[in-house]
Design brief:
This protein is an alpha+beta fold. Helices cover 27% and strands 33% of the residues. Strands 1, 2, 3, 4, 5, 6, 7, 8 and 9 form a nine-stranded antiparallel sheet that branches. The relative contact order is 0.17.
């Protein structure tokens, strides 16, 4: 498996010319810049998939669920992952737009937690990413009715065989039930492990007045 691309670079925070501290309007850029720096270290740590992240959602009944997905993009617009839109996660995102991400890298002893509202990416973005996937992944997206009951493995393999035959000798289009989601953050927390369990926690929060930065007890 090829190493996933690094998130798009984001601009560095602009300092206030009188105080030398980042202005409130620049704190989000500061948070995204820090994310990029931490993620770059994680990618260099030898982990096979440093873009693994836990995605937590909640259904219409208020019952939470979580699973691991892969981060594919990260920039000032938010954090993007791709999936079957008719899966359980897709159903829950439609029911309750709020979700949370957690990326933890034991190799560098750091963690980033992100919360916010989720929206679908554009069809153009989903088409472009789907076209970049290897053919086996493209066929799998058609063969699997993700999160729906399955009688047996034989049924799944028969579905794949049917899809292979259908698209033999031609490109595989993106299924309408498959696409991307972008989590637009309103809360980003950076955690750095320290001795005596006195860990560093830095929180960036979006408020009505703009982004704010604070420290939390470990």
């Amino acid at each position: 498996m090829s190493r996933p691309p690094a998130p798009n670079a984001v601009r560095r925070p602009t300092e206030n010319r009188t105080t030398g501290h980042p202005k409130v309007s620049d704190l989000y850029a500061e948070a995204m810049s820090r994310f990029d720096e931490v993620y770059t270290r994680a990618r260099g740590s030898g982990l096979r998939e440093p873009n693994q992240m836990n995605l937590a959602t909640v259904g219409a009944d208020g019952r939470p669920s979580s699973r691991v997905v892969l981060l594919k993009e990260a920039d000032e617009r938010g954090f993007v992952f791709y999936t079957n839109l008719q899966s359980r996660k897709g159903d829950e995102i439609r029911a309750k737009r709020f979700a949370a991400l957690c990326l933890y890298w034991e190799a560098i002893y750091e963690q980033i937690r992100i919360e916010g509202v989720v929206e679908e990416v554009s069809a153009t973005e989903s088409d472009a990413y789907f076209a970049s996937r290897d053919r086996t992944s493209q066929l799998g997206a058609w063969a699997s009715h993700q999160s729906r009951p399955l009688a047996s493995r034989v049924e799944l393999e028969a579905s794949l065989a049917s899809v292979r035959e259908r698209y033999e000798g031609q490109s595989v289009p993106r299924p309408s039930h498959w696409g991307g989601y972008r989590l637009i953050p309103d809360r980003i927390e950076f955690w750095v492990g320290r001795e005596f369990r006195l860990h560093d926690r830095t929180l960036y929060t979006k408020t009505e007045q703009g982004w704010q930065k604070s420290l939390l007890n470990p």
